[in-house]
Amino acid sequence: MILHVTRTDSTPHTPDGRPRARGVGIPLRGDPGPLNALTDVAGVQVGTTTLVDG
Length: 54
Hints:
Blueprint: no helix or strand
């Protein structure tokens, strides 16, 4: 007999296998947003900068 369980809530690991903070028991304030991403936070902007030195 093979039993396969799929969790539909938050998983304890990222898709690439790294542990999530909540998954290892680190308490965090609030609830994750719909995308569970930094961009879920109102007013936050994300960008990149390339620095060339030398």
